[in-house]
């Protein structure tokens, strides 16, 4: 027994010695590895600061229309030229142990790991300022182990070769604060219109909170979220004894003046358009702000520089410099929804607010074509008549009344046709149609046409009292122009990464959502706004710009007390204009009321100059007839006014006009239908009139 016990004891001692030796070996290996790593980092010396690559934006013709401003909005300032409150605010929220660690806060890393494990998700960050600065020097933010190891080595090199002050200064001059501002000086100038040295406690706390999520905590995008984070930072500063409780309270109560612009703004091609492109990259494609600005992307857009130049020049020429009228403009290729031009205001430097996509304004009578499309689907035809007279509609359910008025309170005091109602924009006809179809019809039709703003179920919605965006309305008219295929506004066709890899590419899907015959009948009726044959108690609404039109167009104008619209199209291009005052002030000057129409027609002429003149091609299931436009009946030889009008087959009028027949003439004396085969374009153009 003693022999066995002694043998076991010797074996145990042997294993213990082996374990100790092995442990010492691994410890030595780890120490040698660390020493080697530190030696390598030291030998490598100060890391070269990577120069960020500009992101390029291309137009549809392949030309560069914009470049990220890697130098325009970066202003390096020394640490002593930065407000101490901003430095303290940044340290309190990003890395309060910055001066005590050597690049890695292992206590914080452990706490973050435990929190992530508990939540089974990434809920807490542990990166120090040194690590973040290292990460900011890379072009990509991918989450591979290779990148993480590189980041760690870079952090070591920073810590070993730079002082804490130098690292902090570099970090504060490279961190992204949103809206294209990199570094505290650019951010201070953009948000508060002052240098970084002049920031107050409240301003410093708000600015320090933005880098965590520039699109979430920018006071321009969400002031309340920015204020909430500011309070968190002020409390953290108080807890770390960087400021007193009195100073914290003062900072929270401080009134902040958010400027939201750079002292020396640099304008590129189509700045409003490019803003939309960047928003899509961030919100729809999920690309982070830093990569958008400095990630070396190639963004291929739908912008047509010729169209954009035409739009900007026409707007500048047509609107008088002294006028305060604003403008929202969009042009779209109806075939695919590509946005070819966009103007969101008269001066981007003065106001980057995009009135083409952000403003929701009453569309007035430009909503009527959507209503009348629903009516045509339900059996209305260009010859459908209703009485135009002052009418008060009474509703039993709530005992309310509604009395729509025509422009200048003029009425036909007689029946008018749908074709005429569109051309002269009769409001009574529109409300009667709206109520006849049921108010739900326009609501549903607007959704079918892609409007992103809801239509209210009220009688006045037929007259465009529910707000809409310019880009949505132009897109809707584009669906008339393309024969009823679904389109949505497209700004980006392809995005390539820094290495040439395709990050995104637009896929095209063709879906018929409108009845093509009804869409064509509507297009032909919308051409009537330029045709004096449809004049009645009022002239057609496009008569003032008819003389400028050299090709077939269809469209509709719209007017409210504070809004003027014109939306229209040729077969290959759709465009829309809104003009008015930002605050909804009434448009009182007569000349201000014609800006939208004039801008539209001159843009269309300029944008399509040199392109083939195309007419709208009838669908197979429609047929044209000469009718008397005043009563919608088939025209006879005696009719002084005859207009060639298209109907869906089977819905054409069967009754002949007998108002102008003599006693000797038969009741049925129709005008022969004109031949359509091989008709030159210039003769087809006259047929529309």
TrEMBL record:
One of its GO terms (molecular function) is serine-type D-Ala-D-Ala carboxypeptidase activity. Residues 328-580 form the Penicillin-binding protein transpeptidase domain. The chain crosses the membrane at residues 20-41. Keywords: Carboxypeptidase, Cell membrane, Cell shape, Cell wall biogenesis/degradation, Glycosyltransferase, Hydrolase, Membrane, Multifunctional enzyme, Peptidoglycan synthesis, Protease, Transferase, Transmembrane, Transmembrane helix. InterPro entries: Beta-lactam/transpept-like, Glyco_trans_51, Glycosyltr_51/Transpeptidase, Lysozyme-like_dom_sf, PBP_transglycosylase, PCN-bd_Tpept. It is found in: Cell membrane. The keyword Secreted does not apply. It comes from the Bacteria. GO terms for cellular component: outer membrane-bounded periplasmic space; plasma membrane. GO terms for biological process: cell wall organization; peptidoglycan biosynthetic process; proteolysis; regulation of cell shape. Residues 62-238 form the Glycosyl transferase family domain. This is Penicillin-binding protein. The lineage of its organism: Bacteria, Bacillati, Bacillota, Bacilli, Bacillales.
């Amino acid at each position: 027994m003693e022999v066995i016990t002694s043998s076991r004891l010797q074996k145990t001692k042997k294993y213990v010695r082996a374990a100790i030796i092995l442990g010492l070996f691994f410890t030595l290996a780890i120490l040698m590895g660390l020493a080697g790593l530190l030696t390598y980092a030291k030998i490598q010396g100060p890391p070269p600061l990577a120069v960020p690559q500009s992101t390029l934006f291309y137009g549809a013709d392949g030309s560069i229309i914009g470049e990220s401003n890697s130098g325009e909005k970066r202003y390096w300032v020394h640490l002593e030229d930065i407000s101490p409150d901003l430095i303290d605010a940044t340290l309190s929220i990003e890395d309060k142990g910055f001066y005590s660690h050597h690049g890695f806060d292992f206590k914080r890393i452990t706490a973050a790991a435990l929190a992530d494990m508990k939540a089974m998700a990434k809920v807490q960050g542990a990166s120090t300022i040194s690590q973040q600065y290292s990460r900011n020097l890379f072009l990509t933010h991918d989450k591979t182990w290779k990148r993480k190891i590189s980041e760690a080595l870079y952090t070591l090199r920073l810590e070993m070769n730079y002082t804490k002050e130098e690292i902090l200064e570099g970090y504060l001059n490279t961190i992204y604060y949103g809206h294209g501002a990199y570094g505290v000086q650019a951010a201070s100038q953009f948000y508060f219109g002052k240098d970084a040295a002049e920031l107050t406690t409240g301003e410093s706390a708000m600015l320090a909170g933005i880098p965590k999520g520039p699109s979430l905590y920018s006071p321009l995008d969400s002031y309340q979220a920015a204020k909430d984070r500011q309070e968190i930072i002020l409390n953290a500063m108080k807890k770390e004894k960087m400021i007193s409780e009195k100073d914290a309270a003062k900072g929270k109560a401080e009134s902040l003046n958010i400027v939201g612009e750079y002292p020396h703004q640099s304008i590129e091609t189509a700045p409003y358009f490019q803003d939309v492109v960047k928003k899509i990259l961030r919100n729809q494609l999920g690309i982070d702000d830093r990569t958008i600005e400095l990630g070396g992307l190639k963004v291929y857009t739908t912008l047509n520089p010729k169209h954009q130049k035409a739009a900007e020049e026409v707007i500048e020429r047509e609107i008088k410099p002294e006028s305060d009228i604003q403008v929202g403009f969009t042009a779209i290729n109806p075939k695919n929804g590509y946005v070819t031009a966009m103007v969101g205001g008269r001066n981007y430097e003065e106001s980057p607010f995009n009135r083409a996509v952000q403003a929701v304004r009453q569309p007035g009578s430009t909503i009527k074509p959507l209503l009348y499309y629903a009516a045509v689907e339900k059996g209305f035809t260009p010859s459908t008549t209703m009485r135009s007279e002052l009418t008060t509609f009474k509703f039993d359910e709530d005992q309310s009344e509604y009395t729509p008025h025509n422009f200048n309170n003029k009425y036909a005091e007689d029946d008018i046709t749908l074709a005429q109602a569109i051309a002269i924009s009769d409001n009574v006809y529109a409300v009667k149609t709206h109520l006849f179809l049921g108010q739900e019809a326009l609501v549903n039709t607007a959704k079918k046409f892609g409007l992103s703003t809801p239509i209210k179920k009220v009688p006045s919605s037929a007259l465009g009292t529910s707000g809409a965006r310019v880009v949505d309305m132009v897109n809707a008219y584009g669906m008339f122009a393309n024969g009823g295929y679904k389109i949505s506004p497209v700004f980006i066709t392809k995005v390539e990464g820094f290495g040439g890899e395709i990050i995104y590419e637009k896929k095209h899907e063709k879906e018929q959502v409108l009845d093509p015959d009804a869409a064509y009948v509507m297009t032909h009726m919308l051409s009537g706004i330029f045709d004096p044959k449809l004049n009645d108690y009022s002239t057609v609404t496009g008569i003032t710009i008819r003389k400028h039109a050299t090709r077939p167009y269809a469209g509709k104008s719209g007017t409210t007390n504070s809004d003027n619209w014109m939306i229209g199209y040729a077969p290959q291009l759709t465009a829309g204009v809104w003009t008015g005052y930002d605050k909804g002030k009434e448009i009182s000057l007569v000349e201000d009321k014609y800006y939208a129409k004039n801008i539209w027609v001159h843009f269309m002429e300029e944008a399509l100059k040199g392109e083939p003149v195309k007419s709208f091609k009838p669908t197979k299931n429609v047929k044209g007839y000469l009718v008397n436009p005043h009563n919608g009946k088939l025209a006879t030889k005696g009719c002084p006014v005859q207009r060639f009008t298209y109907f869906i087959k089977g819905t054409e009028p069967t009754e002949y006009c007998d108002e102008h027949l003599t006693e000797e003439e038969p009741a049925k004396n129709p005008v022969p239908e004109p031949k359509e085969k091989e008709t030159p374009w210039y003769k087809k153009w006259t047929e529309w009139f």
